[in-house]
Amino acid sequence: MRNPRPAPALLPAAARSVQELFDPLLPPPLLTMYLAGGTMLISRVIYIAAELGLADLLAQGPRDVDELAKATETDPDSLFRVLRTLEALGLVTQDCERVFQNTPLALGLRSDVPGSMRAWVRYFGGAWHWHAFSQVLGPVKTGKTIPENSYGAGLFDFFATSLEHAQRFDEAMTSISDGINALLLSAYDFAGLRSVVDVGGGQGRLLAEILRIRPEIQGTLFDRPEVIERARRPGILADYERAGRCQFVGGSLLESLPPAHDAYLFKEALHHWKDPEVRQILEVTREAAGGPGKKILIMEMCVDPIPENALAGKLLDLLMLAMLGGRERTPREFKLLLSPAGFQMTRVIRTLPYTLIEGVSI
Predict the structure, then answer these.
(1) Which residues are catalytic?
(2) How far, rounded to the nearest angstrom, does the alpha carbon of residue 238 sit from its chain's CA centroid?
(3) What would the mean pLDDT of 29-46 be, rounded to a whole number?
């Protein structure tokens, strides 16, 4: 007989946090209303702050609403109402009437600080993405992604035809990479490896950090050809390429990967795919690895099977469903995918909110 799941708390953590944010005395029906509508409005007001660059404008200290309105070409009264909402969210404080300044939380919206989330907020809250996600019921009904339903193509195929959206996406992914990279590098030291392939590595920021801290490692950045073309332009890996420590390879991870390397790293590169495609990717990886003892490293926001835990992973799972047809998985689900492909799962390292899974070819 299967063990029953523990009974959830009377009010799950996500609902409690919304209740505390809006009003600690909200009755359940109004709490439901604020879960649906209030959180949407929070997302929009933070997007306004990011798009207008308010945190950048306040970086040097307090400023009057009229100054900010002039700098952002907005209506002063309307901007004041946005700022007082941002104050309630803890992103700014009001020093005196109509004068605001940043709080430490606003660092995430500044363009000039490590770990800035401004590009991500602008992408996620931008008109195209917001309109697309309004069609989220479609994937639930049809199993097809929003881009497939709207454009007849997958998301990355759509990006290949739209440089503007592709650049916004690249900027958004780069903005969240530093934080994830720091988690990975603090959890895994890459000792004993001579060569690493960063599969789906985007602009190469993670690989550059690995090469910086491990001078004995040779690196390969692998991604779609158009992504590799963009990745070479900024020159994040240029010095390592000139030193003969890095190469760029474009291709499809469903078909082949650079062969005979010590480790194949997938940082948020498998949640884009459905299980049959992930099985194929893992088989391709095993073939590329060659002999036994080669590492596979998977960094994902794994789903916590306990119902009331880890809302972030479950929300990201729905985003994958809607936009890419993929999914977030539990460590056990990864184990079941790795084993038939010829990998033994050897370690599960939790670096909240992400999980690093290590496997070895057998």
Answers:
(1) 271
(2) 25
(3) 85
